[in-house]
Design a protein that fits this description.
With 479 residues, the protein is mainly beta. Helices cover 11% and strands 28% of the residues. The strands form eight sheets. Strands 17, 18, 19, 20, 21 and 22 form a six-stranded mixed β-sheet that branches. The protein is built from five helices and 29 strands. It folds into five domains: 68 residues, Mac-2 Binding Protein, CATH 3.10.250.10; 98 residues, SRCR-like domain (Mac-2 Binding Protein, Roll), CATH 3.10.250.10; 79 residues, SRCR-like domain (Mac-2 Binding Protein); 100 residues, SRCR-like domain (Mac-2 Binding Protein), CATH 3.10.250.10; 99 residues, Mac-2 Binding Protein (Roll).
Length: 479
C-alpha cells in the first residue's frame, strides 16, 4: 500500500484503495522495468522509490502489479475527515452540501478505508474549495465500494457555490466480525488498521469508541479475541482516553506499554447501538426500538416490511430477517414513538439512514409497534443461499464442524434463511476457513424446526475440529 500510495499521488488519483498482484488487470507484454519496489509512501514519483537497477528482476508477467485509487478524497482535515472532493476528468471538484446525503457518505468513507460516517457537515465546514463545484448529484445507495460506481443525475435542484462545499467526518475506529456496534476493536493508524490489546483498553476508551461510531454507550468489553483474532499489526501504544473525547484520534496515548500482546489478546467491544430488539426470546428477536437524543423509543408498524427488517438484522449482526410484525406482537412500548412510515431500500447500514416521516412524527399508537425476528444462522463466502455455515452464539458468530452437521440440520438452516431445501452439504472448509471459534456443541435437529435455535443441542463432542473442518451448505434457493 505504501507503493500504491505513491502511484495514486503521482497520478492525482486520491488515496490508494488496494494494491493487487498476480496480474489482476492482465499480463503486460513489454519489458519489466521495476521489481522489489520499496517506497516509504512519501515520495512524489514511483521512479524515486528504492528498487534494483532498471530492468533487473526475478519475475514474469504473471506477477504484474496493479493499483486501485479512489475517485474521492477528503481535504483540509485528517486522512478520514475533511472537505469532500470528487475526481471529475482531470480535476478535483467539490460537492454541494444539498446534494450529499448519508448514503453518499457511507460510500466515501468505505472507499477511503475510513470506517463509517460520523457526521456530514455543510456550509464549507472544512474551508471553501478553489476549483469547480460538481455539476451532478451523487445517488449512492450506500452499498457501493466506490463513488465511481454510484448512479449520478445531471438534473441539479440547487445553485451552489463554494460556500456550500460539503464536509465529512469518518470514524478512525472499526468494530470487526460482529455487527455495526459490536466486534473486534481496530484503530486506523497511518494507512493500516491495528488491533488493540485487551490489557490496554478500559471503560473510558470504550466510551469514546461507541460515541464515535454513533453506537450509544458501552455494554461489555471482551478480551481474549472474543470476536476472532485480527490479521494485521497489534497497536504498540496504550490509549489513555478521558472518556469525553468525540473521536479516538483525540485521545492521549502512551508508548510505555506494560504488556506484550498478540492477536490472542485482541479486545472486543459491545456497544448499546442505535437500534435494539426487546421482549423477545433473544437479542435477535423482539420489538424494534431506536435511540434518539438519549432516549429509546419504538417504531410504528405502518408500512413496515422485510426490507426494513433486513436493515435491523444486519445492523445488529443477527443474520437474515425471518419475519416482521406490526401489531405489537412483542408487547406495547410505553415511551415515545420515534419513527413511522419507515421505507428502507434494504441496503442501508443502519435503520436511522432509512427514509421516514421524521423523528417523533407519526400517526400511530403503541398498538402498532413494529417487531422483527432475525435468524441465528448465516451462510458466508458464497451467495445468499450458499456458503460456510455460521451460528450466532452469544455475541459471536461461530463456525460448525462438518462431522457435527447432517441433512436434518441442513433442512432447518435452508428453511430459516428462506432458501428452499438443501442441495449439498460440503465439508473440509469448501467455502473457506472461518476466523472465530469452532462451535463446541453438536446440533441435533429433527429437520422440521423453523429455526436453528429450536434444535436440541448436545455438548458431548465426538470430534476435535478446526477451521479446516468448517461445514458449507448449498440450498436450492437463489434469492
Amino acid at each position: 500500500m505504501s507503493d500504491a500510495a505513491v502511484v495514486c499521488r503521482e497520478l492525482g488519483c486520491g488515496e490508494a484503495v488496494d494494491a493487487l498482484g498476480k496480474s489482476h488487470f492482465g499480463s503486460g507484454s513489454g519489458p519489466i522495468w521495476m521489481d522489489d519496489v520499496d517506497c516509504s509512501g512519501s515520495e512524489s514519483r514511483l521512479k524515486n522509490c528504492r528498487s534494483p537497477v532498471w530492468g533487473k528482476h526475478d519475475c514474469n508477467e504473471t506477477h504484474n502489479s496493479g493499483v486501485i485509487c479512489s475517485g474521492a478524497r477528503l481535504v483540509l482535515g485528517c486522512r478520514c475527515s475533511g472537505r469532500v472532493e470528487v475526481l471529475h476528468g482531470e480535476s478535483w471538484a467539490t460537492v454541494c452540501d444539498a446534494d450529499f446525503n448519508q448514503q453518499d457518505a457511507e460510500v466515501v468513507c468505505r472507499e477511503l478505508g475510513c470506517g463509517s460516517p460520523v457526521k456530514v457537515l455543510g456550509a464549507a465546514a472544512f474551508g471553501r474549495g478553489e476549483g469547480q463545484v460538481w455539476s451532478e448529484v451523487l445517488q449512492c445507495r450506500g452499498n457501493k465500494s466506490q463513488t465511481h460506481f454510484c448512479p449520478k443525475s445531471s438534473s441539479l435542484k440547487h445553485n451552489c457555490s463554494h460556500d456550500n462545499d460539503v464536509g465529512l467526518v469518518c470514524a478512525g475506529v472499526l468494530l470487526v466480525n460482529g455487527s455495526r456496534c459490536s466486534g473486534r476493536v481496530e484503530v486506523l493508524h497511518g494507512e493500516s488498521w491495528f488491533t488493540v490489546c485487551d490489557a490496554d483498553f478500559n471503560q473510558q476508551d470504550a466510551e469514546v469508541v461507541c460515541r464515535e461510531l454513533g453506537c450509544g454507550s458501552p455494554v461489555e468489553i471482551l478480551g481474549a479475541a472474543a470476536f476472532g483474532r485480527g490479521e494485521g499489526p497489534v497497536w504498540s501504544e496504550e490509549l489513555q482516553c478521558r472518556g469525553n473525547e468525540s473521536q479516538i484520534h483525540f485521545c492521549p496515548k502512551s508508548s510505555l506499554l506494560k504488556h506484550n500482546c498478540s492477536h490472542d489478546n485482541d479486545v472486543g467491544l459491545v456497544c448499546s447501538g442505535s437500534v435494539r430488539l426487546v421482549d423477545g426470546d433473544s437479542r435477535c428477536a423482539g420489538r424494534v426500538e431506536v435511540l434518539y437524543r438519549g432516549q429509546w423509543g419504538s417504531v410504528c408498524g405502518n408500512n413496515w416490511d422485510m426490507r426494513d427488517a433486513a436493515v435491523v438484522c444486519r445492523e445488529l449482526g443477527c443474520g437474515e430477517a425471518v419475519d416482521t410484525y406490526h401489531e405489537s406482537y412483542f408487547g406495547s412500548a410505553s415511551g415515545p414513538i420515534w419513527m413511522d412510515n419507515v421505507h428502507c431500500s434494504g441496503s442501508e447500514s443502519t435503520l436511522r439512514n432509512c427514509e421516514s416521516a421524521g423523528w417523533g412524527k407519526h400517526n400511530c399508537d403503541h398498538s402498532k409497534d413494529a417487531g422483527v425476528i432475525c435468524s441465528g444462522v448465516r451462510v458466508v463466502g458464497g451467495s445468499h443461499c450458499s456458503g460456510r455455515v455460521e451460528v450466532l452464539h452469544g455475541e459471536s458468530w461461530v463456525t460448525v464442524c462438518d462431522a457435527d452437521f447432517n441433512q436434518q440440520d441442513a433442512e432447518v438452516v435452508c428453511r430459516e434463511l428462506g432458501c428452499g431445501s438443501p442441495v449439498e452439504v460440503l465439508g473440509a472448509a469448501a467455502f473457506g476457513r472461518g476466523e472465530g471459534q469452532v462451535w463446541s456443541e453438536e446440533l441435533q435437529c429433527r429437520g422440521d424446526e423453523s429455526e436453528i435455535t429450536l434444535c436440541p443441542i448436545t455438548s458431548s463432542h465426538k470430534y476435535n475440529c478446526s477451521h479446516g473442518n468448517d461445514v458449507g451448505l448449498v440450498c436450492s434457493g437463489t434469492v
